[in-house]
Amino acid sequence: MTGATLGSLADVSDWFSLRLAEVDPTVDSVEAAAIERLSRGVSRQTYAVDVRITRSDGSETSEGFVVRRDHEQGTVDPVPLRTEYEVYRRLGRSHVPVTVALWYEDDGAWRPDGRDAYVRTRVDGDWRLPFLDSDDPLDDELRIEACKEHLDKLALVHTADWEALGFAELFPVPSGPADCVPNLIRLFTGRLADVQTEPSPILAEGLRWLTRAAPEAPCITLCKGTNGHGEEVWRDGRIVAMSDWELACLAEPAYDLGQVQDMVPTIERHGRTVWGWPDALAHYERRSGIPVTMERVEYYRSFYALPQFIYSQNAGRHVQDGNRMARFAWTATEIQYAAELKLAAVAGIPTGGRAP
Amino acid sequence: MIRPDVDDVLAVVIETIEREIAPTVDDEHAASLCRTVAQLLRSTRARVAHEGEALSEDNRQLRSVLAGLRDAVPAPVAPRIDAVLADEAAGYRPVTDLQREAVALRRALVEAMTSLASETDDSAHQQAIRGYLHDELERQRPWLVDAYTGPRR
Question: Helix A294-303 vs helix A277-288: angle between axes, to the nearest 10 degrees?
Fold first, then answer.
């Protein structure tokens, strides 16, 4: 065999039979029942695989898995697939809720369609929280509880023993709390050097200001990167799996709190603020023991322009290399411009009108 | 053949995708790509209409900024500014030429900015640079902001 074909149920059955038996010796055989490509992700390809597993005691179960791999044309974030897998492997030994990373396939005899892939368990749940947009007072409690749940899980990430879990081998380690921002700038500009396709004066100006305005960090923690609505798997009001670790790194909690998507509502009723960022940060500090100021959150909101600029440059590089994916072209144009506007804002350069 | 022009044809393609193709697509991933492609075409339509003039104006302004920085930058940077300023063509310029010129000018500007990074923000040089950065971003707004009208995926 010269590699499995991900579209072939027979190939996937053979592949899973071999590898799942290595992970779990009670597995006798695996029959793939369905393979579906999930459409949401832009950065990489994600497939849901349903299988029937027969075990050595004769029992049969239906189980779901996820196959993750780069696009044939590459990936948007210039972070190796292996790094994403290794993050999950390490987090599997922590209290952070994550999928179980089962195996990384780099054996030419089995790599699906000739590309590396890794397989993880599929966690039942939904990324959608429809009540987040609600302005109905009846949903206030739900929105606040979801916010607290998300902050609780971020606190687990930030209080994880990153050294014991082996993250120092995966990510560059700041020399101390004061080195958090310089370390991040080194990390991201290092990635940029590999993918940048054209000189960017606005990036140069933005970096000058990001360096100058770097806040002091209270500690060094594992950080997730992109987080919040759309990035985590929810079930029954709880986060059961935190996903999308492509911007994970060693930094400080404000790096993550600056990247929270839609999970911290500002709720005002009858002229009184019921919930907002100050409440969220107070809740977070109670759970983590780490103080986070709004100033640091704002700084890292601005800082996000840097990784955003890098992944949009990388997408543009793919397009120029002949990798004709519409999502790459979109990322390389509109998203890159959004990053440039953020960099302008960092540098205090006013830009007018409607932002993307 | 002059008409229908590029703008007309792109408008037809966009409307065909959105009105006739996308509604018949059942596959979720393909339907999502229809949205991405239609929005990209809207952006492309505006870019075709505006990019030549915008780049021409951008390069002209950048030449002026670089000429103003020329005597303030350190010795190794100055000759590179001289070189890009000397490479100026007259007459009609296709967009690809303007893009090539823009890359060279912007590379020189980044070098100059790096060499002048310690200057105070209110210096005339920094004000000229920041004025250019503002204008450069605003020139792209028609095809990178205004053209987008709906969900991208």
Answer: 100
d(CA A2, CA B139): 51
Residue with structure tokens 């205090």? A348
CB-based contact A351:A213 (threshold 8 Å): no
- Give the number of beta-carbon pairs within 8 Å between A and B: 86
Contact: A354, B145; criterion CB under 8 Å: yes
Shortest Cα–Cα distance, B68 to chain A (Å):
16
In this prediction the ipTM stands at 0.93
Give me the helices (H) in A41-179, please. Answer: 81-91, 140-159, 162-165
> Cβ separation of B136 and A202 shorter than 8 Å?
yes
Indicate the pTM of the whole model.
0.90
Please give the CATH topology (third level) of the domain spanning A9-121: Phosphorylase Kinase; domain 1 (3.30.200)
Q: Which residues, in sequence order, are CB contacts of A314 under 8 Å at separation 6+?
A: A74, A75, A76, A77, A78, A195
Q: Which residues of B touch A326 (CB under 8 A)?
A: 33, 36-37, 40
Contact A333 B113 (CB under 8 A): no
Q: Which residue among B36, B39, B145 places its CB closest to the CB of A353? A: B145
- Residue A249 C-alpha from the chain's centroid: 11
Judged by CB atoms closer than 8 Å, whether chains meet at B134 and A327 is answered as no
Q: Which CATH class is domain A137-347?
A: alpha beta
User: What ranges do the domains of chain B cover?
Assistant: 6-144
Q: Tens-of-pLDDT digits for all 356 residues of chain A?
A: 467 899 899 999 999 999 999 999 999 999 999 999 886 666 789 999 999 999 999 999 999 999 999 988 788 888 999 999 999 999 999 999 999 999 999 999 999 999 999 999 999 999 999 999 999 999 999 999 999 999 999 999 999 999 999 999 999 999 999 999 999 999 999 999 989 999 999 999 999 999 999 999 999 999 999 999 999 999 999 999 999 899 999 999 999 999 999 999 999 999 999 999 999 999 999 999 999 999 999 999 999 999 999 999 999 999 999 888 899 999 999 999 999 999 999 999 998 754 44
For residue A44, list chain B residues with Cβ-Cβ distance below 8 A: none
Domain boundaries, chain A: 9-121, 137-347
Which of A327, A329, A334 is facing B144, going by the closest CB pair?
A334
Contacts of B109 in chain A (CB under 8 A): 199, 201
